[in-house]
Design brief:
MetI-like fold; flat; 9 helices; mainly alpha; 191 residues
């Protein structure tokens, strides 16, 4: 199996689960992270996990859900940037004496930086308003900005404060999008 086939297979494994609903994928993690999930019971039975391990309704569960749900938004732009990259430049850097890590830092990273920035932006924007994952997997115990805004509107009934938080988030996202646009335009000018 060639490297192109392996890369395509790995990309397919990342993308295929996203043919289902965001809500269904999040609820699936609710079942998987439960203490009584068969894998956890088996691992506790052979004493590989502590008996009192609790993943569900913790920040760790929220992190797992966030990484799982937003991973493709980062991987796809990176994959596209790495596919377009001229790998002979890395080979040339190594031929001229750069170790692999320095060739990565001086050649690969600058060439895929637009993909890194695009992926970061694609993850950052929806993550700033994330509400469902912390509510479902964190049991509303983990506070994200989206939860905080929702809490101000629904529970506290403090609409002015909720609106103020939302405006700060919108302003921060606008600044980041403008910075990204400026960096992308500069990168385009210099080729």
């Amino acid at each position: 199996m060639g490297t192109g086939t392996v890369a395509t297979l790995l990309l397919l494994l990342i993308v295929v689960p996203f043919w289902t609903s965001f809500l269904i994928r999040t609820y699936a993690w609710l079942i998987i992270l439960d203490r009584d999930f068969p894998l956890f019971r088996a691992l506790r039975a052979v004493h590989l996990l502590p008996q009192d391990l609790q993943l569900l309704y913790t920040p760790k569960a929220v992190y797992i859900g966030v990484v799982y749900n937003y991973l493709p938004l980062m991987v796809l732009p990176l994959y596209a940037a790495l596919e377009r990259m001229d790998w002979s430049l890395v080979e040339a850097a190594q031929d001229l004496g750069d170790p692999a890590w320095r060739a990565f830092r001086r050649v690969t990273l600058p060439l895929v930086l637009p993909g890194v920035l695009a992926g970061s932006l694609l993850v950052f924007i929806p993550l700033m308003g994330e509400y469902l994952i912390p509510v479902i997997l964190g049991g509303d115990l983990t506070i994200y900005v989206g939860n905080l805004i929702g809490q101000q509107f629904l529970t506290s009934r403090d609409w002015p404060f909720g609106s103020a938080i939302a405006m700060v988030v919108i302003a921060a996202m606008t600044v980041l999008v403008l910075l990204y646009t400026r960096l992308a335009r500069k990168a385009e000018e210099y080729g």
